[in-house]
Design goal:
Helices cover 61% and strands 2% of the residues. By secondary structure, it is mainly α.
Length: 348
Amino acid sequence: MLSSAFIFQSVIVPADVFQMPAHRQALPLAVTLFDIPFMNDPLPEFVEKFDYINKTLIEYGWIISPHMIGRDFEKTFRLCQKLNSDKPVKADEKAKALGEINELLTPILFHPLTRAFFVFRSKELKYLSNFSHHIEKGIVHYLKNDFFSSVHCLLPAIEGSLLAYSNWTYGQNRKPSINSLLDELLKCRVQTMYPLRYKMYSEIMTSFLRMWIYSDTSVADTSFSFLNRHYVLHGMGNANYYSLSDCQRIIMFFDLFTEFLSLEQNINYVFIPEKNEKINEREDYYHNLITKDLRKSFMDKHENKFMLENSNYVDEPNKPDWTKFLKAAIQEHLDFLKELDKKKKGYS
């Protein structure tokens, strides 16, 4: 039975297919066997539910991307109905609700193929590609359970990509205000083939950013997280803004921003490309990262290769050989002790 599905621009794809050994090879067969519907735009029922889910989840700092549909989508919809019925108010009630959201969405978000595909897409999209190296590194940290580093990679990339979207570059006049950056998203300035989806994505993203990432810290809701651009980048405190949930909230923003920009730039994928070396290499590495105890040299080799594929990443040309430095320091200390011992013997 199909447990869930992904939607990439114009086709609903069962998620279970992605988890099979020959995941992408099975996709054409799945389309035939399960009568997967191709769509010119989201079905009205999906649009209504997608909007309902996001309007509910945003109260808890979450949004979702349209790559999730099917049974997982329905489970999320039912959870949102429960949240709207229970109306969690107390701190412990909210904590329980957040735990349920995280427990449901984490297994959907982390999948190596999904992450590899979205990292690949970040490089080919105008505006987002300016900061694809942040996304590249942020996802590796995420899969290593280093959410602290992941958030610090991803958070600056939000504003950076929005500035790029507003055609502002460093060295010009004073950078646009946060409000003007968000208003630019709401303009829906391109005539796309999917106007309903396009407008819906812009509204979800701007609501999420206004309410959470760029909220005025004097009125921001910090009852469960301090994930706020001003709080983090201005060092306004040392509270937790780097939980698993926080990291995944930012990832979901980039997933949705990717779909939004893909509509604008008419870069469409029916399925995840099967013979794409860049996607395949990352999927394999992410899988190994999750399932194996990898050597540092192996990780450094692959991660550096991936980073160099990002146009704006600048590699350090003089990387120190820390082992060499450490050995030299130890030898210097041993030589010092020998010399000291000689002097002591000379005095005796």
